[in-house]
C-alpha cells in the first residue's frame, strides 16, 4: 500500500495505475476509520481495480465552536486498517498542502446546503463541497463512494458533481450499525457509558417513524412529533431536528411521494449525532 502526502506524487501514482489499465476508486474520509468506512472501501473495490482512501480532517467544514481540535486522528491505526482492507493507496495531506497561504476559492451549492445540517452548521457544506471538489480534481476517480449515513452530504455532493460536470460516478453506500442500531461514527468515541446507552434513541425514533408511516393514516407532522417525543424519552438526548422530507430535494414532502426520508440530529452532552432512514410510502 502506498501512502502519499503530496498532490504531485499522488497524481504520479494514479497515472501509473491508469497506464496499467486500472479503473480508479476514491473513498474520502476524515480518518478514525471504523467498519462503516471499510464497508465503503469494499463497495468501491467491486467496481474498480485501484482503491485510494483519503484521510484528511478538513478544517473548513468545522464551525468555530465545533470539535476540530478534539477530532480523533489515530493515523497509524488507520493506515493499518487500510492495509488490512487491501486499500491500494492512502492520500493523507497536511492542511497547508490543500489550503496553502492565499487559498480563496470556494465551491458552494445553493439552498440545499443551507437547510437542516446547513442551518445548524453554517458554512459546513461549503467546506465539504470545496474539499470534495479538490479531492475529485486531484484523484480524478472513475468512482467515489460516500455513505448514506450523511444523507444531506451525499445529496449535495451528487448535485455538485452534476452541476459542475465532474466525470466521477458517485456511489452511495448503506449505513453500518452497531448491534443495537446505533450508526457507526467516529464521534461515537466521545460518548460516555450513559450517553452510549441513550444514543440508540436516534435509531429507535427512525424505527418508529417507519412503523407509523407504514401503518398509514398519519400526517408527516404527527410522525415528526412522535420522533421528537421518542428522542426526548431517553436520558440526556436533546433533539435538534427530526423531520420527514422529500428524499431528493430535502424540502417538505408532498403527499404524492412514493418514499420519504426521515432525518434526525440530536445532542448527547457535547456530542452531536445524526442518522436517517428512507421510508417507502405504502398507499
Ligand atoms: P467521515 O470520515 O465521517 O467524513 O466519513 C467518511 C465517509 O464514510 C462518508 O461518506 C460517510 O458518510 C461514510 N460513513 C460514515 N459513517 C458510516 C457508517 N456507519 N456506515 C457507512 N458509511 C459511513
Give the topology, please.
Blueprint: E1 2-4, H1 7-19, E2 24-29, H2 35-45, E3 50-55, H3 75-84, E4 89-91, H4 95-98, H5 117-120, H6 124-139, E5 143-147, H7 151-163, E6 169-173, H8 193-198, H9 201-215, H10 220-232, E7 237-245, E8 259-268, E9 271-280
Parallel strand pairs: 1-4, 2-3, 2-5, 3-4, 5-6
Antiparallel strand pairs: 7-8, 8-9
Helix pairs in contact: 6-7, 9-10
The structure holds adenosine monophosphate (AMP).
The site of adenosine monophosphate has 17 residues, from helix 2 and strand 5.
| Individual helix count | 10
Low-confidence residue ranges: none
% residues in beta strands = 15-25%
Small-molecule binders: adenosine monophosphate
Strand order of the largest sheet: 1-4-3-2-5-6
CATH T-level fold name of the largest domain: Rossmann fold
CATH homologous superfamily annotation of the largest domain: HUPs
Tell me the Rg in angstroms: 19 Å
Summarize the biggest pleated sheet.
6 strands, parallel
CATH architecture descriptor of the largest domain: 3-Layer(aba) Sandwich
Written description of the protein model:
This protein is an alpha/beta fold and 283 residues long. It has ten helices and nine strands. The strands form two sheets. It has a six-stranded parallel beta sheet with strand order 1-4-3-2-5-6, with helices on both faces. Strand 5, helix 7 (151-163) and strand 6 form a beta-alpha-beta unit. The longest helix is centred in the middle third of the chain and has 16 residues, at 124-139. It is globular and about 60 Å long. Adenosine monophosphate binds at residues 29-30, 36-37, 39-40, 146-147, 149-150, 173, 175-176, 183-186.
Amino acid at each position: 500500500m502506498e501512502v502519499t502526502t503530496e498532490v504531485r506524487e499522488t497524481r504520479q501514482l494514479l497515472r501509473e495505475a491508469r497506464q496499467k489499465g486500472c479503473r480508479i476508486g476514491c473513498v474520502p474520509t476524515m480518518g478514525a476509520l471504523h467498519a462503516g468506512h471499510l464497508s465503503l472501501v469494499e463497495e468501491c473495490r467491486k467496481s474498480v481495480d485501484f482503491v485510494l482512501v483519503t484521510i484528511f480532517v478538513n478544517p473548513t467544514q468545522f464551525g468555530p465552536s465545533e470539535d476540530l481540535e478534539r477530532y480523533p486522528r489515530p493515523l497509524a491505526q488507520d493506515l493499518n486498517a487500510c492495509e488490512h482492507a487491501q486499500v491500494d493507496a492512502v492520500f493523507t495531506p497536511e492542511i497547508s498542502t490543500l489550503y496553502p497561504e492565499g487559498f480563496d476559492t470556494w465551491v458552494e451549492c445553493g439552498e440545499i446546503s443551507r437547510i437542516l445540517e446547513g442551518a445548524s452548521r453554517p458554512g459546513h457544506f461549503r467546506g465539504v463541497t470545496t474539499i470534495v471538489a479538490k479531492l475529485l480534481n486531484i484523484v480524478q476517480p472513475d468512482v467515489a463512494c460516500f455513505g448514506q449515513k450523511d444523507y444531506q452530504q451525499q445529496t449535495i455532493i451528487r448535485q455538485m458533481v452534476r452541476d459542475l460536470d465532474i466525470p466521477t460516478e458517485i456511489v452511495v453506500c448503506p449505513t453500518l450499525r452497531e448491534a443495537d442500531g446505533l450508526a457507526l461514527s467516529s464521534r461515537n468515541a466521545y460518548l460516555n457509558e450513559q450517553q452510549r446507552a441513550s444514543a440508540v434513541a436516534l435509531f429507535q425514533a427512525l424505527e418508529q417513524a417507519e412503523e407509523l408511516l407504514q401503518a398509514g393514516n398519519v400526517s408527516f407532522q404527527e410522525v415528526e412529533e412522535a420522533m421528537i417525543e421518542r428522542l426526548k424519552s431517553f436520558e440526556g438526548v436533546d433533539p435538534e431536528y427530526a423531520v420527514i422530507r422529500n428524499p431528493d430535494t430535502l424540502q417538505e414532502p408532498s403527499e404524492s411521494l412514493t418514499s420519504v426520508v426521515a432525518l434526525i440530529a440530536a445532542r448527547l452532552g457535547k456530542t452531536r449525532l445524526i442518522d436517517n432512514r428512507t421510508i417507502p410510502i405504502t398507499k
